[in-house]
Specification:
Blueprint: E1 4-12, H1 19-22, E2 28-32, H2 40-52, E3 56-61, H3 78-98, E4 103-108, H4 110-118, H5 120-128, E5 135-137, H6 142-149, E6 154-158, H7 183-194, E7 199-202, H8 209-222, E8 225-227
Parallel strand pairs: 1-2, 1-7, 1-8, 2-3, 3-4, 5-6, 6-7
Helix pairs in contact: 2-3, 3-5, 4-5, 5-6, 7-8
Length: 243
Amino acid sequence: MRQRAVDLNADLGEEVTDDPALLQVVTSANVACGYHAGTPSVMRAACELAIERSVTLGAQVSYADRANFGRVVVDVAPSVLAEQVADQVGVLTEVARAAGGAVAYLKPHGALYHRAASDEATARAVLSGSGALPVLGMPGSTLLSLAAASGRATRHEGFPDRGYTPAGTLVPRSEPGALVTDSAAIAARAVELAGSVDSVCVHGDSPDAVRHAIDARRALSAAGFVVTTCWSDADARPTPGRQ
């Protein structure tokens, strides 16, 4: 019987959690590229440790809004947004290359993630600025549909530490039930989601992010899943620098 496999990803380089501890658990790292969090030195440390531990690197791009941690929609022209995405991908690509690795995929952060999931202009801008990078996102999202239509690789992810609406979208953080904080519940939900997605995400900025990741990984392994990266070596290809 073929073993089932699932990736475990988390947000790194945001200066709000224990990156080294998370990198002992996850198999893919969404590294903040400086627009919502992170600095060149923080990016460099995250990339070096991820490469050392064979964790796949992804560029977590955001609106230029450090004050709100990238969680508020910013009204920016698509052409400007594409340039901002290209800048972020370019910065992380250079940092990863200097550390001896490569960026393997793209994942928007926060408000940009959600807007690109439903707004075509935003999704196209994110794709335009990110070269040919494979894309990680929500199943059924506009971003993934457009990426796949253009021939780009895509991966689906689920969030065991977030509440879902009946429509399959995430409950807004401003509403009750948006966050799941019980580690046992998160672990159980990770197993539930793993059968239908390529990657399970644990938010790195949660107060107990490391515990959540450890418990989720243990539960996945106990349920018979092989926890391993969902990205191949071919995904970690050279990407365009800043435009």
